[in-house]
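Following up on my earlier message about magnesium ion. Here are the inputs again, as you asked, copied directly from the submission form:
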Amino acid sequence: MEKIVVKAPGKLFIAGEYAVLEKGQQAIVIAVDRFITCEIQANNENILSLPDLRLENKTWEIENGKVYFQNDDQKLAFVKNALEVFYQYLSENNQTVHPISILVSSELDDRSGKKYGLGSSAAVVVAVVSALFQFYFKKLDKPIIFKLSAIAHYKTQGNGSCADIAASTFGGWIAYSSFRPEWLLTKLAKERSLTDLLRSSWPYLSVKNLTPPTSLHLSVGWTKSAVSTAPMVKKIQQLKQTNKQAYEQFLGKSTKAVDAFIQSCELNNIQLAMASLTENREALQELAQLANTEIESVPLKQLIAISNKYGTGKTSGAGGGDCGIALVKNAHDVNLLYKEWQEVNIEPLMLSINSTGVHVIDTK
Ligand code: PMV
Ligand code: MG
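Thanks, got it. Here's what our run produced:
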């Protein structure tokens, strides 16, 4: 029996964090060459294994469009919602559901099980949805896969820009602006046809590929401490309520920095790219101060101070932990940067850009 194998890359934020949660604001994200792999095969019962999450041989049943795992576990929520959304799409397209086995494995967590912050839950959703799509339709329709994954992810997490889903689906360097979540939730509640929703255009959603300046060297450092994004976002959202003016000012600064980065790509101007990240860092620093929260944790501050000796450094994503990034001026400085990072317990991650996004592996 044919086995489908699909790989979905992890992501990193480059710029525009927090601001991207607001209408029409853009973020810059990249896909990196570490993957979630999903294998699907026809089977005599529905069975799922995620050995990296220590979840093995979990069976499930489908009843009236709902997926029921025999031993439910919070960690299964993303896959469960991915399955439910996909099965709704299948039934609308008059396809018969077959029992399958699904195996999901991850390179997005370190061996001790700590997450790097490379967007593993988003990549799991993209990998599972894509493998199912390939299994049933013998192709990957990426705009549809993005939307199915965004719905499944949003249903599970209840917040987030889905920039990570875009990076994992489409790959490369991306300028992303999000659909409006309240719009999507209303549509999901009201509209009968998921297929119509998937085919319609989603207000404010925009995914554009970028070509970064040719001499750009991106380095990534891991703080070895994990953070969850949701409480960080909550804290920042409070500022929006208590000090709207300061919040709007942050949005203005972030837009300016992200626009400058996009322009640096168009002009192939590395100086402008570096200056734009410095500007975005300052905007985020001010935001954290106003919201009385810590985006730059002590290790991230150290990572950035060292990066600034060789170029420019910045937090990546929500901050508080996970990874930071650096753009260095001279490629031969990269090893010096890594050495100094290691001296303060920052682990350089040897990541390259994945330009394809989610893809099928030929197993023949
Ligand atoms: O730390 P991460 O990689 O989860 O990034 C969060 C980025 C935010 O803009 C703060 C939230 C989001 O969903 O875009
Ligand atoms: Mg993070």
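One observation from looking it over: The longest helix spans residues 244-267. Hope that helps, and feel free to reply on this thread.
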